[in-house]
Amino acid sequence: MDQTLSEFGNVFVFFLLGVVFVAGGYLTARMLRPSRPNPVKTSTYECGEEAVGSAWVKFNIRFYVVALIFIIFDVEVVFLFPWATVFRQLGSFALVEALVFAGILILGLVYAWVKGDLDWVRPTPSVPKMPEMPASKSTSQRD
Amino acid sequence: MFELPSGAEIQSIISILKSGLGFFIPEIYLSILFMGLIILDLALKGRNKSGILGWATLIGLGGSFYFIAQQHAMQAGEHFFGMYVLDEYAIFFKYFFVASGMFAVVATLADRKFDAEVKSIGEYYALVVAMVIGMVMMAAASDLLMIFLAMELVSLSAYILSGYFKRDARSSEAALKYLVYGAVSSGLMLYGFSLIYGMTAETNILKISMELADHGYDPLVMILATLLIMAGFGYKIGAFPFHFWSPDVYEGAPTPITAYLSVASKAAGFALLLRFFYIAVPHGVSPYEDILGIDWLTLLVIMSVASMIYGNVVAIWQKNVKRLLAYSSIAHAGYLLLGVIVMDEIGTQAVLFYLLSYFLMNYAAFYVVVLISNRTGSETLDDYRGLGSKMPLAGAALTVFLISLVGLPPTVGFIGKLMIFSALLSKGALYIWLALIGVLTSVISLYYYMLIPLNMFLRESLEPNEKSLNPGFLAQLMMAVLMILTIWFGLFFEPLSEFARYSSAMFGLSLY
Q1: Chain B residues 82-141 within an 8 A CB cutoff of chain A
Q2: Where along chain A do its domains lie?
Q3: What is the pLDDT of residue B187?
């Protein structure tokens, strides 16, 4: 019981140190630095660029898809490393297991590929056409 | 420093894994089915793709019954280092979830809205199967990590499925709300798990129960942990006060998915709830009597009563049939919790039987809703006016299913409620009040359920149109069969209740 408590105590001390570290940094900076703000200083730092517009813009969904596919294989490597370190002792069973594991992930990649999620097509700007004459045919109605 | 395990250790680990695989065949089969469906989806082209995929899923899921049936012969026990349990209880839910997956597919094949809204059915059926796998694992998980993993598999599939009508704003809203509530509640549940792990340094629920019995626990931490865990389970079963997602999600999601969530996902939550609370967490009068005088059982009682009252009362004002059924499903979660509260084999049996009856009547009711909205394109109560004369069989069938949902004889729903209440009454004075609340709220439910037949048969249609709406031969047959089954099992319930009693044997329950 004491053992577990001290483990929690470690975490708590770690947590406290984290708070003290951050707060101390801010406090020291506040005491040492001169305070002479001007508009350029207080503007948002954007790698030297001038910040234009709001940060709340829509990102292209493709970024997320690519990131997700990357994560899959990133995680795969994480799982394969420990497997590889003891590979010699593991034998054929573990080889088959790892192949199944990789196979499932490859199926996922194939799926994303076939469905066209890897094609980075540039959006073709659609030129608005002149409005057509009102069609006499009624659009198909659902019953 | 990290030390490499010795060869002998590795060999023993591998042999445990290998021996576990033999008890894991239905799950492996379902996983292969899942991948097969994805490959089939990639390979198939053409117009009839949705139909082929749907039938392939149906046949594939049906095939898994064979492997599940073989597990009856196997001895109950733990596998994969105590991660996973095989017992009659788990097998019961395997049947249940595979059957409910099949029903979701049947309803999807019947739903015309999919043809209009969904351009490519794609991974839809594969996700239905993934959800079946997750739920099967939920019913058999005996380790906190496995429980969490299985629940997330179910949830993630469910989020995508509920938002499958991408261009329908309500469907997308449903998926988003489901996701946000789901993320919060699984976070809370994980926090509860971490508290339990902190107290016992174990993740296996059997070992947790032994550890708690041997070394005792702080009742305050315990009640906090169970409350947090209940947030996760309560979200899955859709019980008050963790129900907020359900009306919006049920209304917005595709109707087959609504039915699937309301039956299968709820049952999975109950499977987990029963196993976890029966086995892992001690209750009642223990050597470590609670300072607050309440334990998790009290919390369940409060949840149950609140669900019954809230679900049934709020349903009165609903104008949309799917929303109405959503509130009714909150109320049914309350009734099911009554059976959990009993805390013995009769209670478990009652819960399992109630789940079976709920499966039949709720799926059937949603099936009719799908058929009606195919014809009318609407799910509001006003659009049900005068439908009784245009779709006589659908009207009659829906009336039977709703009577069953109220819990009136001679339907299967009546037997379900009867078993729950009689299990309660066998426990003594305090439980009589709970049964009384259950009965009274059932009376309230009579009103709003009967609004639907009232509109169908006794009110004139807003736009008179004598054209009869035939839902098609197969759908008629399906409705007739479901209607007969609902009444049949209401009269001859012995096989179902025997099956439920047989399945209430949980591995490890005798040890506690």
Answers
A1: 116, 122-123
A2: 11-50+58-114
A3: 93
